[in-house]
Amino acid sequence: MDLTFNKNEDYNKQQVYELKMKLKKVQFGGGEKSAAKQKEKGKLLARERIAYLLDKDTPAIEVGAFAAEGMYEAEGGCPSAGVVVKIGYVSGRQCVVVANDATVKAGAWFPMTAKKNLRAQEIAIENRLPIIYLVDSAGVYLPMQDEIFPDKEHFGRIFRNNAIMSSEGIVQISAIMGSCVAGGAYLPIMSDEAMIVDGTGSVFLAGSYLVKSAIGEDIDNETLGGATTHCEISGVTDYKHPNDQACLDSIRNIMSMLGAPKQAGFDRVKSALPKLNEQDIYGILPDNREKPYDMKEIILRLVDNSEFEEYKELYGQSIICGLGRIDGWAVGIVANQRTVVKSKKGEMQFGGVIYSDSADKATRFIMNCNQKKIPLVFLQDVTGFMVGSRSEQGGIIKDGAKMVNAVANSVVPKFTIVVGNSYGAGNYAMCGKAYDPRLIYAWPSAKIAVMGGAQAAKVLLQIQESALKGKGETLAEDRRNELLKEVTDKYNAQTTPYYAASRLWVDGVIDPLETRKVISMGIEAANQSPITKPFNVGIIQT
């Protein structure tokens, strides 16, 4: 192995180590004191509940582990947005599990909590997966109610989704394992079945304090909305259980009796590991985003048997397209090539840039995969579309529009992995969050922004300088350099994969070696949702 490989390997393994440390921290939720309070009540913690519920020794993927990271600091923070979401298996059936984390502000809903819950429901709806809610929440975080209550993508949308899923036959099971207050009371009761834990679970539209102030009635929360009230008097809940474990066992039992889902029919054969060593990815991927590398070498370490059927290999080489298998599933891969290539016309093409010929090739390949019913995997390391007079005269805008059109109208499921850069319109054409990938995850090496840090900082500095000039002021060279550093540092902080994950622009940050698992479980989920919409790209610019 050469020195560069070793240097890359050290750097990328360090990045993965940092990722694991960050995940460990997030998994503590609201901290030891809050956890101890839950334990005193005889409750399992949110992650313990999920671990107990999911089948042992089966894979699972977490969605939104870093949601709200670095946000709401004035409120004391909100790790994982106060809710844990996993895709896993219960009694052999793949499903989505959503558990409020009562160690974080008593499970109260912040704006990002709503966004994350809606993302969990979106995954269940798109893939027709059963969804299990483990409810333990004090309801909306009142000091921020204006940011979570009334809008289309706010709290109320969750109950709207409950109703839509019910009408579409998507199974929803709820367990009330703690508080369940006000509007939040509708979520479990709009599920197909609602169970409650005796002594710790309670559900009511208004708690005892609010009842006292509203109508003057003196009553305690247990009498108002505890398990006995709702299982024996009101009939609001369907099952009463003595503790968390019994409640979760009951869910497992119900899940074991579900009828089989319809299949979309995506092709799968026996899984095989890549022949080339997956660990080599750490050494191939450069230690910074400017350096070139051969994306084909990454692909060969992700696909079964390291076999890849490349489409139009010698044409439009700045995008690699081809067919392979991941964990047995047939996939069409669209990936940005990061080496400098020379076209047959003698044109040098920069790695990571989308040119007219590569956009044309990718568009046709995406259409082919829709024709053949093959799921699509996008590997992003894109700096954008080619600019300049030659490209503009060559029609780069219409060629880019074709690709965006094909991606947007694609009916086969799409999965996106942000390997490196994800800049500007390149993010869109390569199936960024706005283009409905079923799952989108980033490696620690990802950078997501409208443009690269160096270029953006210079543009932002020029704007500041011209504003000062308008006031008759000029910048001294040392002040200029200071400002440039400030702007660059701020911009770079906003382009990290963790910044993107905190806002749910990506579903999470993963070790590159988890990529095959994420894609495989994603296709397995998608295979439970038959394609009903015909493929139609609309008007293609010619």
UniProtKB/TrEMBL annotation:
Gene3D superfamilies: 2-enoyl-CoA Hydratase, Chain A, domain 1 (3.90.226.10). Its EC number is 6.-.-.-. Residues 12-270 form the CoA carboxyltransferase N-terminal domain. It is an enzyme of class 6 (ligase). One of its GO terms (molecular function) is ligase activity. InterPro entries: AcCoA_carboxyl_beta (IPR034733), ClpP/crotonase-like_dom_sf (IPR029045), COA_CT_C (IPR011763), COA_CT_N (IPR011762), MCCB/AccD1-like (IPR045190). It holds the Pfam family Carboxyl_trans. It comes from the Bacteria. Keywords: Ligase. Residues 268-533 form the CoA carboxyltransferase C-terminal domain. This is Acyl-CoA carboxylase subunit beta.
